[in-house]
Design a protein that fits this description.
The complex is a heterotrimer of chains A (about 450), B (about 180) and C (about 325).
Chain A (H helix, E strand, L loop, with lengths): L17 H6 L4 H9 L2 H11 L11 H6 L10 E6 L8 H8 L1 H15 L3 E6 L4 H16 L15 E6 L9 H8 L23 E5 H5 L1 H7 L1 H6 L1 E2 L2 E2 L1 E8 L5 E6 L4 H6 L13 E5 L8 E2 H5 L11 H4 L3 H4 L7 E6 L4 H15 L5 H18 L6 H13 L7 H25 L1 H6 L7 H8 L2
Parallel strand pairs in A: 1-2, 1-4, 2-3, 7-11
Antiparallel strand pairs in A: 5-6, 7-8, 9-10, 9-11
Chain B lengths: L12 H11 L11 H11 L6 H10 L4 H10 L11 E6 L2 H5 L2 H12 L12 E6 L11 E3 L2 E3 L4 H13 L12
Parallel strand pairs in B: 1-2
Antiparallel strand pairs in B: 1-3, 3-4
Chain C lengths: L1 E5 L2 E5 L5 H11 L28 E6 L12 E2 L9 E4 L4 H16 L15 H9 L16 E3 L3 E3 L9 H9 L5 E4 L6 E4 L1 H6 L5 H5 L5 E3 L12 E6 L8 E7 L2 E7 L13 H5 L8 E5 L7 H14 L1
Parallel strand pairs in C: 1-5
Antiparallel strand pairs in C: 1-2, 3-4, 3-5, 6-7, 7-10, 8-9, 11-12, 11-14, 12-13
Helix pairs in contact in C: 2-3
Classes of the chains: A alpha/beta (about 450), B alpha+beta (about 180), C alpha+beta (about 325).
Chain lengths: ~450, ~180, ~325
């Protein structure tokens, strides 16, 4: 069993409530930080821990915190990004449902470190029942003196609120989240200025993912070095992986960084392999926006080394032969899945979620969806594949926010690795309506590895 | 011609207290931040969708201009701008759900309810919609109705749910969990 | 002062100046280098908050500054990126950048109707100019285009949303002229549309300016609708005493008939001073105006490039 840090107590009966959470050692990090550490020392511990943003970008959290501007007399804000909407990702929801006080505790300790007096949890509007779970946990924390005026008799005060969204993937982008929290359309802002300088209501603001903030208590309790000792290299600590698609045991798993991909998919401790004894065709390991990889490249990198669950190993080979850890939305495809149809649903998703502010994303996502829709429904042309790659290049890197990249990458990667399957769709439209392409070139791979 | 009694949309006192509480979560002058949440409340209280009149009322409550409310209400997918049935079934059909048979779930619901996606049954009970990722990928296929997620759907489960709803005279209130 | 080099031409600018403004400064001081000014479809300097959206003004920064000479990894929006001391920028000299811009133009055009022959904006349309200068001659788009119904915004203005490129200029213009916001964008993605809280918008004395700032034919002057192609009318600088606005306008005339009144625009096609609806719509008789003389149009427009200048000269 690999070590559990965040979900260690997730299955203790009653852990949702304050009493049990406290009994299991909850809120110790607040006590420790407020009584024996300066805010700078807390930031230092987080820096030393090597914790990286768990929302998908993997930016070092301590460094992000140290960018926060601290002008005199201007309030600062901490926002928790709980707008989990990346297809394949449902880990934050699990954490908030199972152990809501961990997030509350993480936000209190983090707010102390950042000198924040008001913090908000921006949660996707569809998670309505979690709003109630969080508001109950927050009420309990107020009742027991962990929130409010002069916490633990110190000069530190904090108010924490939950703000539900209205249904928009784009609000997971931090400046769109800020706009939405200001009661506006979720149009991402042009950067600079970055939120650390001008964020919520033009005040310095830090936006962190749920899982990132939930890791702060253990880092403060056990020290940044202890956290950094878990994991491999620059991928420290544990990561929540939400496994879905064609798996025997889909769900949320906390893994120690460095776990081999093969073990994660096939061992009974984790996903338990693929149902019906079907063969593994492909995987999108970090949420729908990261490149899809065929089974062979997912299990071993281009150099033939085992891929393991770290930021570095998954991105080994760049976009040519690698992918990304992203948000940890781990989507597995069995041999009967159609890559064209899957890519079409992703393109439809990004088209649906584009805010429409900047032209490459607004127009390009719709174009890609329409072309893929044609191919999927038997009206594709050979030149459509190059066209799709070309549109994706025109969007990538040329938009206000990363949604453009997120929309472009999966299309480009699917054609990069499964071009034959796309061509087969275009050239055999009738057959493609009747059956799936299957494993294609991976048949040879499976023959060679003797599965 | 019979003249129907006209009731303009107005929140109850209890609801108004909730609105004031939400507005109080934001600094002075930032009451616009309460908009999304108040729109959710308005949608629940005033018939499951937002009319221009309801949006104008919300604008008035929060002392912002109506266009600011329209901009927001039309941006976010959870706000219905047209009437929907008592039970709005939203079936996720993005990649991960598709891998686990969401298309079949939608087809089954269409056949069972006798409507297509984006239609409402004649009795006004059900509206069927397809939705983009709702964050339940590991428990697919799934659908949302009111505040509840119904996951790992099978035809039997759908039958049981729909049959039970058909017997209910009153729709579930969105913020009230039903199991 | 900060030193910046654009396409090999050096200039000095105040801190806080954007790359686009620096390029315009070069063009103003050395008109022979006007071609290096990036095209801007959404940025409009008199409008606070505008810009950053259309991505046509992108440039490549090959040296960030003297102190940190690293290049910027992606093309940047020149209307939003501030000059750093020693910055080196490539626009027309960078083939990759021109290809990227061509891509943006293609994307802007996929849903835009090819109705230039019946569009009142033709001849002074920024998108037409942009497509002419940077676009491809053929489209690869074979899908259905997005369409909307036309909407009348009061008696004078028509919104033809199908042609809109969502630059948001009209939104910022309306915000600038009204105390309370009345004009905004509804829906999202490529279904987004300009929505207007109509009654209030038409009551505003300056609402007609949204026609002048619109880069395409999405907002047009109903009083000029189908009256004439713009290149058949002759522009004259004119003024009248107005207690609402500056009263300085351009009259677009055919013989002695005033077909259209607009605000005056500078060489970068931005309104110099906004005018009121009364000047724009209610004084379409020559006698109401003091005509200063023919206005020369310094534009690279599809039509003016070939015909206009020659005619304007003969008028003088």
């Amino acid at each position: 069993m690999s070590r559990k840090i965040l979900l260690e107590h997730a299955h203790v009966a009653g852990i949702q409530g304050y009493e049990i959470y406290r009994k299991m050692g909850g809120y110790r990090s607040v006590e420790k930080a407020l009584k024996s550490l300066t805010p700078e020392e807390v930031v230092d511990e987080v820096k030393r821990s090597g914790l990286r943003g768990r929302g998908g970008a993997g930016f070092p959290t301590g460094m992000k915190w140290s960018f926060l501007a601290k002008p005199e007399g201007v309030p600062r804000y901490l926002l928790c990004n709980a707008d989990e909407s990346e297809p394949g990702t449902f880990k934050d929801r699990y954490l908030m449902e199972k152990i809501p006080h961990l997030l509350v505790e993480g936000m209190i300790t983090s707010s102390y470190a950042l000198g924040v007096q008001t913090a908000y949890i921006y949660i996707r509007g569809e998670y309505k029942w979690i709003v109630k779970i969080l508001e109950k946990a927050i009420a309990e924390a107020y009742l027991h003196g962990w929130l409010g005026r002069k916490i633990l008799g110190t000069d530190f005060s904090l108010d924490l609120y939950v703000a539900p969204g209205g249904g928009a993937y784009i609000c997971g982008e931090e400046t769109a989240l800020i706009e939405s929290l200001e009661g506006k359309r979720g149009n991402p802002r042009i950067k600079p200025p970055f939120p650390a300088v001008k964020g919520l209501w033009q005040s310095p603001t830090v936006v962190n993912n749920v899982e990132t903030l939930a890791a702060v208590p253990v880092i403060v309790n056990e020290g940044g070095d202890a956290y950094a000792a878990v994991g491999v290299g620059r991928s420290t600590g544990t990561k929540l992986i939400s496994a879905c698609g064609n798996l025997n045991k889909p769900g949320v798993y906390e893994i120690e960084m460095g776990l081999p991909v093969e073990e994660f998919i096939f061992s009974d401790e984790y996903c338990g392999g693929i149902p019906g004894g079907k063969r593994f065709k492909a995987c999108v390991p970090g949420g729908s926006s990261v490149p899809i990889l065929p089974a062979d490249l997912m299990l071993k990198n281009a150099k033939g080394e085992d891929r393991v669950m770290t930021y570095e190993s998954l991105s080994d080979g760049g976009f040519l032969t690698g992918t990304m850890l992203g948000s940890g939305g781990f989507i597995v495809f069995d041999e009967d899945q159609c890559i064209v149809r899957n890519t079409y649903t992703y393109a439809r998703f990004y088209h649906h979620e584009s805010c429409g502010q900047c032209s490459p994303c607004r127009e390009g996502t719709g174009w890609m969806e329409k072309v893929l829709h044609r191919i999927e429904h038997g009206h594709g042309h050979d030149h459509d594949l190059d066209l799709l790659v070309d549109i994706s290049k025109k969007i990538e890197g040329n938009t206000i926010c990363p949604l453009g990249d997120a929309a472009a990458w999966p299309v480009a990667a699917a054609i990069r690795h499964f071009r034959e399957e796309f061509e087969w769709h275009v050239r055999h439209p009738q057959e493609a309506q009747a059956r799936n392409y299957g494993l294609g070139r991976l048949e040879i791979y499976y023959g060679a590895v003797g599965v | 011609m019979e003249i129907m009694a006209y009731n303009p949309p107005r929140f109850s006192e209890e609801r108004l207290a909730q609105v004031r509480k939400i507005v109080g979560q934001f600094p002075e002058g930032r009451q616009k931040s309460a908009l999304i949440r108040v729109l959710h409340m308005a949608q629940e209280d005033f018939g499951g969708h937002l009319t221009a009149e309801v949006m104008d009322y919300v604008a008035d409550l929060l002392a912002i201009s109506p266009i600011e409310v329209y901009e927001v209400a039309t941006f976010y997918t959870m706000f219905n701008l047209k009437p929907v049935g008592k039970y709005m079934l939203e079936v996720c059909h993005t990649g991960p759900c598709m891998l686990r048979g969401a298309d079949k779930t939608i087809a089954y619901l269409q056949q069972k309810l006798g409507i297509k996606v984006n239609e409402t049954t004649e009795d006004g009970f059900f509206t069927l919609k397809s939705a983009e990722c709702l964050g339940a990928c590991g428990y697919a296929p799934m659908m949302q109705c009111g505040e509840h997620y119904y996951e790992n759907l099978t035809e039997e489960k759908i039958d049981a749910l729909v049959d039970a709803w058909q017997k209910q005279p009153v729709p579930p209130k969105a913020w009230e969990k039903i199991d | 002062m900060l030193k910046v080099t654009i396409d090999g031409i050096e200039t000095q600018v105040e801190p806080g100046t954007t790359i686009l403004q620096a390029a315009r400064k070069i063009a103003t001081e050395q008109p022979e280098h006007s071609h290096l000014v990036p095209p801007a479809m959404c940025y409009y300097s008199p409008l606070e908050g505008s810009g950053g959206k259309c991505r046509t003004c992108i440039v490549k920064v090959t040296q960030g500054s003297e102190r940190d000479p690293r290049p910027m990894p992606k093309p940047v929006a020149s209307c939003q990126t501030q000059v750093m001391d020693g910055m080196v920028v490539e626009n027309t000299t960078n083939p990759d950048l021109l290809a990227a811009r061509k891509g943006v133009v293609e994307l802007l055009l996929i849903n835009h109707p090819l109705d230039c022959p019946v569009c009142d904006q033709a001849g002074e349309c920024h998108l037409q100019d942009l497509a002419f200068a940077h676009g491809a001659s053929e489209t690869r788009y074979e899908e259905e285009r997005r369409t909307f119904e036309r909407i009348d915004i009061g008696p004078y203005i028509q919104l033809h949303m199908t042609r809109c490129i969502l630059c948001y200029r009209c939104v910022y213009t309306a915000n600038q002229f009204t105390d309370e916001r009345v004009h905004g964008v509804l829906f999202r993605g490529d279904r987004a549309e300009i929505g207007t809280y109509i009654e209030k918008a038409i009551k505003n004395d300056f609402s007609g300016n949204v026609i002048d700032v619109c880069p395409v034919g999405a907002l047009t002057d109903k009083t000029f609708r189908f009256r004439s192609r713009v290149w058949f009318t002759r522009p004259f600088d004119a003024h009248r005493k107005c207690d609402k606005c500056c009263g300085k306008t351009v009259l677009w005339m055919a013989g002695d008939d005033v077909l259209r009144v607009t605000a005056r625009k500078d060489v970068f096609d931005e309104v110099e001073e906004f005018i009121c609806n009364e000047c724009r719509f209610d004084h379409k008789v020559k006698e109401d105006w003091t005509i200063e003389g023919p206005r020369s149009i310094h534009r690279h427009s599809v039509i003016s490039a070939n015909k206009y200048k020659a005619k304007a000269k003969t008028v003088v």
